[in-house]
């Protein structure tokens, strides 16, 4: 009898041990959510993440913490997200380069972006601004190309890292314009912009965070990289107006660790897309980072990822860009 009582008590204790943690989890979310950003503060990904964080915090009634984990062109933050518990409390606001370029550029990847992460939703799209230090005596894109052709030694261009979208945008531009530029890489877009403002480098494809530098006269914008002129900088031509077919648009997307329950993914998608559909939010992200909302269905977003993955696989081979 005593043995049975002990067994009963042991079974009850075991049951309680198993059930209480599950019950303690409660409905999602019941604690802070963390959004990892692969780049330093101040850039377009950071702007978008902080806007999302503010809105989700208000909607969920829980803190949303933004953590900037720069380095390895997004691999550091990507690996941390991929290896986090798949419970919806660790998310990744990834630039396309970390998902569709890195697997082709890096000889060894610490994770597989297509298998270890699940796409929640596209967030924003953006284009670069071909920008020069004002000491470069060029006021237009043709003038810059002519000056760069004659420069000896070659002018230096800054980018946020080998294999970054900034890097590819400039390599494509060099090819189309028939010019030679020296590549100098930095730990993200904002440091690359600072280097060009300081004169360490002469040119870069800058993100929307550079708007203040144009206003201050510390950078001069020559053209934008996208298919259409920017709403924020309508006076700037597209590179494609001079070199037809040139087009570099970038996107940011929200991802979670593979295995995150679909109801959590679906709820996050619904919340984020509702935010992006608001006119006031669209205006805010455009003014803050030259960003445009990118609202796609899950099928459309998956198709975009696959299309860009294949495209950059070809470009990596073409330009022979590798990181060992």
**Order of neighbouring strands in the sheet with most strands:** 2-1-3-10-4-11
Indicate the CATH class of the largest domain: Alpha Beta
The CATH superfamily of the largest domain appears as: Bordetella uptake gene, domain 1
Number of helices: 12
Strand segment count: 11
Count of spatially separate domains: 2
Q: Overall mean pLDDT score?
A: 89
The secondary-structure class comes to: alpha/beta
> What is the rounded distance between the termini?
68 Å
Radius of gyration: 23 Å
Report on this structure.
By secondary structure, this protein is of the alpha/beta class. The chain has two domains: 168 residues, Bordetella uptake gene, domain 1 (D-Maltodextrin-Binding Protein, domain 2); 113 residues, 3-Layer(aba) Sandwich (D-Maltodextrin-Binding Protein, domain 2). Helices cover 46% and strands 18% of the residues. The protein has twelve helices and eleven strands. The chain has a six-stranded mixed beta sheet, sandwiched between helices. The protein has a five-stranded mixed beta sheet with strand order 7-6-8-5-9. α7 links the parallel β6 and β7. α2 runs antiparallel to α11 and α4 packs parallel to α12. The N terminus is likely disordered.
Summarize, please.
The protein has helices at 2-25, 44-60, 75-82, 96-105, 113-116, 141-150, 165-177, 189-198, 211-216, 262-276, 279-289, 298-319, and strands spanning 33-37, 64-68, 90-95, 117-127, 129-132, 156-159, 182-185, 203-206, 220-224, 249-257, 292-293.
């Amino acid at each position: 009898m005593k043995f049975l009582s002990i067994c009963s008590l042991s079974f009850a204790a075991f049951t309680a041990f198993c059930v209480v943690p599950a019950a303690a989890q409660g409905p999602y979310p019941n604690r802070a959510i963390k959004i990892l950003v692969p780049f330093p503060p101040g850039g377009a990904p950071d702007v978008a993440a902080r806007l999302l964080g503010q809105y989700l915090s208000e909607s969920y009634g829980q803190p949303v913490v933004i953590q900037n984990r720069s380095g390895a062109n997004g691999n550091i933050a990507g690996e941390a997200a991929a290896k986090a518990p798949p419970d919806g409390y660790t998310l990744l606001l990834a630039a396309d380069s970390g998902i569709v370029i890195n697997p082709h550029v890096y000889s060894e990847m610490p994770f597989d972006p297509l298998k270890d992460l699940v796409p929640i939703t596209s967030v924003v799209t953006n284009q670069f601004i071909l920008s020069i230090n004002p000491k470069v005596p060029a006021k237009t894109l043709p003038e810059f190309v002519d000056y760069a052709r004659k420069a000896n030694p070659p002018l230096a261009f800054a980018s946020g890292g080998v294999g970054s979208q900034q890097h590819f945008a400039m390599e494509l531009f060099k090819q189309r314009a028939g010019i030679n530029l020296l590549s100098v890489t930095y730990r993200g877009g904002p440091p690359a912009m600072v280097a060009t403002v300081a004169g360490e480098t002469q040119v870069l494809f800058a993100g929307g965070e550079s708007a203040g530098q144009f206003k201050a006269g510390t950078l001069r914008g020559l053209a934008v990289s996208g298919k259409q002129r920017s709403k924020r900088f309508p006076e700037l031509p597209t590179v494609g107006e001079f070199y037809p077919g040139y087009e570099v648009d970038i996107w940011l997307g929200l991802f979670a660790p593979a295995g995150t329950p679909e109801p959590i993914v679906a709820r996050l998608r619904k919340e984020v897309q509702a935010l992006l559909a608001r006119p006031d939010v669209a205006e805010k992200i455009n003014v803050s980072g030259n960003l445009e909302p990118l609202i796609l269905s899950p099928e459309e977003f998956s198709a975009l990822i696959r299309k860009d993955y294949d495209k950059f696989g070809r470009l990596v081979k073409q330009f022979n860009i590798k990181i060992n």
